[in-house]
Design a protein that fits this description.
CATH architecture of the largest domain: Alpha-Beta Barrel
CATH superfamily of the largest domain: Alanine racemase
Low-confidence stretches: 11-23, 452-481, 498-518
Bound molecules: pyridoxal-5'-phosphate
Number of domains: 2
Oligomer: single chain
Helix content: 25-40%
Strand content: 15-25%
Radius of gyration: 26 Å
Structural class: alpha/beta
């Protein structure tokens, strides 16, 4: 799993070309960089700057993860947020992968692509009421719940759906545990430390699971954890695994029926040649745990499946020399924001192979965006570059296109997929016309009556419930079951404070008797 670029070697009989993890995706052949069999120079001449993906590499990455976790029943759910291109989703779907989504919109995109709902896991730390309804109705394999408040809101959504006759099955839910494990990643990518907004400490997960009767429309079948992204050291993941086993054992001893352990994603890739995550070491440990605990696993790799399958290709416009030297390219922070956002390293190589003896010059590789933070690399030793030279920024498949923006009126670049049969444009580039397509000058009537087809949640009739706001469009149900959600979280708060002080009529429904802890 490396984003390195290599020179083509003589075919190695011991290593078949395909299905071999680590085989280079972007190789110099006849001194020109190729993606599989396609020359990036030829491709650029035809389509201009673009994100170029290798189908072979995508397939190999997915096979590697599947194989690593094959010793236990595992749903490998591709984290769609890394790259939502529907053609890539289809490729993974055809390989039998599941999907992890983190918003209502990602859920819609994934299901629209034909993914079976039982292959989808839904995450997110906060959802709008409409998203809660969508999630509860989706029949997803597992819905991660980030807090007691979200649990109460999801329960209310499911109860409301049931009243509508739309809840086909109880929602399969998993609380997200925050194990307070430092994944040793960029601070903005750490999600499993106590200070992070994600998840609940183990004790609160256990306290919640002791009262499944509070949420009769949810079945608490699992726990979820995800401690960060671009994790290179397996140890924090192994520590997290240990924490999860502890939570599961304690929850089970109190009667919880935990059958799924969702370990999240975060598997780190080798952007800078220093090595990626020892995936197999971690996967072996996870499978062992799953077997011994009688658990089904879910893993949610995003970056690991798509990052090294893509290079962003563009032209050097000129080189500006001074106190610092700048290679000014047509690619900007709006096309790949990771260097500016996280100081992330991406290899940048000329499409025409440089001569080994060419002097390397330290320079910043920058773009045309009006920001000093607009760079792809800082202080990078680069071979000599001339105006018109093409460069490939590797490792651009994850959090590349999905984080691209239209800043400076720049259209997002096209995406191209290279496979055995040739090249396909899998998303067209935007022109300035696309950027004004959604502009309008429509008056908004703030006092408009809600459209008659809007359904109102029964809870809206409760005197303590604020009236649901009118919404244009009518297709989305207005859903504000605050009273119900409030009642549940009040019950929860009393539990935490100690229910013995609560008056009889305030007490939440008593939990059914459970066998004493063993
Ligand atoms: C809950 C969850 N699962 C999976 C992922 C995918 O992470 P990665 O692309 O690092 O594998 C993320 C990303 O932040 C996430 O938040």
């Amino acid at each position: 799993m490396s984003t390195r670029v290599e020179r083509e070697r003589a075919p190695d009989k011991a290593r078949p070309e395909e299905g071999v993890p680590g085989a280079p995706t972007f190789v110099y052949r006849d001194h020109l960089l190729h993606c599989e069999e396609t020359s990036l120079e030829d491709l650029y001449r035809t389509i201009g700057p673009a994100y170029v993906y290798s189908a072979r590499r995508l397939t190999e990455n997915a096979s590697r993860v599947r194989h690593a976790f094959s010793r236990a029943e595992t749903l490998v759910a591709y984290a769609v947020k890394a790259n939502t291109n529907p053609i890539l989703l289809r490729l993974f779907y055809e390989m039998g992968l599941g999907f992890e989504v983190s918003s209502g919109s990602e859920l819609s995109i994934t299901l629209a692509g034909g993914a079976p709902r039982e292959s989808v896991v839904v995450n997110g730390n906060a959802r709008t009421d409409d998203e809660l309804v969508q999630v509860a109705e989706s029949g997803a394999y597992l819905v991660s719940v980030d807090s007691e408040e979200e649990a109460a809101r999801l329960e209310a959504a499911a109860a409301w759906l049931e009243k509508q006759g739309r809840l086909t099955t109880p929602v399969r839910a998993a609380l997200r545990v925050n194990p307070d494990v430092d994944a040793k990643v960029h601070p903005d990518l750490a999600t499993g430390i106590a200070e992070s907004k994600f998840g609940l400490p183990p004790d609160r997960v256990l306290a919640w699971y002791a009262h499944p009767d509070w949420t009769p429309h949810l079945r608490w079948v699992g726990i979820h954890v995800h401690v960060g992204s671009q994790i290179l050291d397996a140890q924090p993941l192994l520590d997290t695994l240990g924490e999860c086993v502890d939570v599961i054992e304690r929850a089970r001893s109190r009667g919880a029926k935990i059958e799924v352990l969702n370990l999240g994603g975060g598997f780190g890739v080798d952007y800078d040649g220093k090595g990626g995550l020892a995936l197999e070491r971690y996967a072996d440990a996870a499978c062992l745990v799953a077997k011994s605990q009688g658990l089904k696993l879910v893993v949610e790799p995003g970056r690991y499946l798509v990052a090294d399958a893509c290079a962003l290709v563009g032209q050097v416009l000129f080189v500006k020399r001074g106190t610092r030297s700048f290679a000014v390219t047509e690619l900007g922070m709006n096309d790949l924001i990771r260097p500016s956002l996280y100081d992330a390293h991406h290899a940048i190589v000329p499409v025409r192979e440089p001569k080994p003896r060419d002097e390397r010059i330290e320079m910043d590789v920058v773009g045309p965006v009006c920001e000093s933070g607009d760079y792809l690399a800082k202080g990078r030793k680069m071979p000599p570059l001339e105006p018109g030279d093409l460069v490939a920024v590797t490792g651009a498949g994850a959090y590349g296109y999905v984080m691209a923006s239209n800043y400076n009126g720049r259209g997002r670049l096209p995406e191209a997929l290279v496979d055995r049969k040739g090249v396909r444009i899998i998303r067209r580039g935007e022109t300035w016309k696309d950027l004004i397509r959604l502009a309008s000058d429509l008056p908004v009537r703030l006092d408009a009556e809600p459209a008659p087809e809007i359904e109102r949640a029964p809870a809206a009739a409760h005197p303590s419930t604020p009236a649901a706001p009118a919404r244009a469009g009518g297709a989305i149900p207005v859903f504000r079951p605050r009273a119900m959600a409030q009642a549940i979280s009040d019950g929860l708060r009393r539990r935490r404070l100690g229910s013995s002080h609560a008056s009889e009529e305030q007490k939440p429904t008593p939990a059914p008797k459970r066998p004493k802890n063993k």
